[in-house]
Amino acid sequence: MLCTDDYRALARPRLPADVWDYLDGGSGAELTLDANRRLFDRAELRPRVLVDVSVCDTAGKLLGDALTTPVGVAPTAYHRLAHRDGEVATARGARGALFVVSIFASRSLEDIAAAATGPLWLQLYWLRRRAVLAELARRAQDAGYRALVLTVDAPRIGQRLRDQRNGFAVDPAVRAVNLDDAIMAASHEHREGASAIATHAAQTFDQTVTWADLAWLRGRTELPLVLKGVLTAEDADRAVEHGVDAIVVSNHGGRQLDGAVPALRALPEVVAAVAGRCPVLLDGGVRHGRDVFIALALGASAVLVGRPALWALAVDGADGVAGLLTMLTGELEHTMALAGRPRLADIGRDAVLLPDRRD
């Protein structure tokens, strides 16, 4: 395995076609899915020379936790679709890296925590049944999770045409085990021309939630609160005003609003609005250590990878995830050396040029 595309190439034939489309696809015409990747490819680096790069250090801290790498695993549902051990294998493979566990994990929060060697965060969607959210927050805190991540860009599921064409439904043998079966029933019901994921979300997601509701969630736990899905300076500023502890700049990997701004394009304005008041992370389109370097240069404290982690999981379980994260971190370290930026603190805004919006 020499690059993420190697994992992708091996993962695809190992997965059923409808599962592959569910994991790999985006919404609408997949404009944002493509734009996330394209902007990384068009960014240019500004290397410095005659710098001692004999040792390049990728270690840092995030919300008080020491990390050996700024590369973590993004929240994605149902890891048992990719590997029989599911999120337990992902947690083992993370080997000290941050792992954000989905509310729709197919292994229990407690089993994942027992397998983990690094910090875990729990991702949540705002469900109509608030008591369920409160119970998940309590369980996460009791199991040693370090933060809650509220996804805020999905009041309903994007129009994912691949899933609709496939009539995609989650295999009943692969369950979101941390939620009652009654809550999840619709996600397993196959209907031609419809996505069971979208049907389930329409029945269970609370579309009335606003900024005022964040206080309720904060009151359920002592864990830091992270908002995922912020793409504008306006929302970033409001998030900080409402006391959030970190922000993830994300367009849901191109799976929600098609045509939304690429995450990398949104990153600088979010960082500027936050003005150092809380950490900013990024996900969406990260495939290489060079991409990690670019995001760090534009102000991210860390990046999260979603699809590549699932590709690696499908290929070789925990060892695949470990190999992927080791590879991305090694590529980052190599980029740091060639760019003359041996510490994360050296990777500043002057290290990268983004193409003009009009290009």
TrEMBL record:
FMN hydroxy acid dehydrogenase domain span: 1-357
Protein EC: 1.-.-.-
Cofactor(s) needed for function: FMN
One Pfam short name: FMN_dh
Domain of life (superkingdom): Bacteria
Keywords carried by this UniProt record: Flavoprotein, FMN, Oxidoreductase
GO molecular function, a single term: oxidoreductase activity
PROSITE patterns xrefs: FMN_HYDROXY_ACID_DH_1, FMN_HYDROXY_ACID_DH_2
Family indicated by similarity: Belongs to the FMN-dependent alpha-hydroxy acid dehydrogenase family.
PANTHER family: 2-HYDROXYACID OXIDASE 1, S -2-HYDROXY-ACID OXIDASE-RELATED
Record-given protein name: Alpha-hydroxy acid oxidase
